[in-house]
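Entry 12.
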Amino acid sequence: MAVSNGVAMPGALVSPRLRPFVVAFLLLQECVQLSCCGSRLAFLPGFEGPLPFHLETGYVAVGESEEIQLFYYFAESERNSKEDALFLWLTGGPGCSALSGLIYEIGPLNFNIKAYDRSLPEFVLNPYSWTKASSIIFVDSPVGTGFSYAENPLAYETGDFRQVQHLHQFLRRWLISHPEFISNPVYIGGDSYSGLTLPILVQEIMDGNDEGKSPAINIQGYVLGNPLTDPAFDQNAPVLFAHGMGLISDELYESLKRTCKGHYQFSESSDADCMNDLMAFHQCTSGLQTAQILEPLCGYASMKPGEMFGDRRSLLENFFLVREPTDLDLGCRTYGYRLSYSWTNDDNVREALHIRKGSIGDWQRCNNELNYTNDISSTLQYHAKLSARGCRSLIYSGDHDMIVPFMGTQAWIRSLNYSIIDDWRSWMVRGQVAGYTRTYSNGMTFATVKARTLTHSLVSS
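Predicted 3D structure (tokens):
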């Protein structure tokens, strides 16, 4: 028998008809050694009756000494799980839990916010779940996020590149424990800060396949929503967006162009006139909910007073004006995030999810205290390399997102100098314009999404 990546592979002595079963058995044996652990959930606190779809939770050990336990939720396709695409979904942050993707974004369940009475939150089915046509792994990454934890305190030190390495390990080991999905087409999806790690992860997966790592991952492409990509485009776009939306005057915009010369960040400017114009800009926009400028500014999304983890943190936290609520107003979308704290910190919920006792303290939707190094500044070159290798991609932007505005995303795509094969046009839903799209050579598609409920993180879309 041949040996690949430490796994004995069947050779000529094994009947071709039995070979796939032998491979699956050997890979499963390796997974047992690598501490892959998952359990199916038939019932879930907050949902009445048995779950009408396959939901699994578990841990996968990663790291040099397998000292890191990455927690995941897996929702199987409700259509044809044997053939439908398998998504690995990355939540932004860094440090925001995968539960956001599962409950607030693209998963099969939503909290019933209207019926919330301060007891254990209840669920309703999401009729627009992506699991109607695909299987999705939602992973708490990096370590220290959600229910993911480390057995060694030193292992909590992480960053962009280390997170990519751990996610690569995670996916291959998860597939070892789920050999029935090895042949499915695989896509990596994410939003926001994931734009700085996801393209590198896709390249790592493709390189790993070329190096003969097992199991081979049938990677087909990636999906990114409102992604951070390159500061030269992302961080200058809000001024362009604000002017285009009529949020600042023509006079201030012209003055900004003149004094700041296209560089609209405080950290980059030493010009006093530019600084004054930037201050005027922020005064004009500070009262906006920048994740979706049509929404009211609420900002408060934590169970702890004084803690604010809205739709963005870290690099773009300065866009928020923190306001404390006088009461729980669920008319504000971000207040709805508080239900996740009530649910995940309930003992019965943790038992149902098979959370290991003592592994973490209070659950947080976004961990603002990660020991995290932002060591990737731009992923432009990775997009170019992936496109050259024939990797398909969909890049979409909400047209009212001011955190990573569509103008900046369009600009960096334009800088790649791809030829256009399907020019700018509308795309429709139920006979109505839902946004606009353009398709480029090398398999890249850009789309805007026109929706009042589409925010920076694709919430409630």
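Annotation: Residues 232-340 form one domain. The chain has three domains: 1-27, 34-231+376-449, 232-340.
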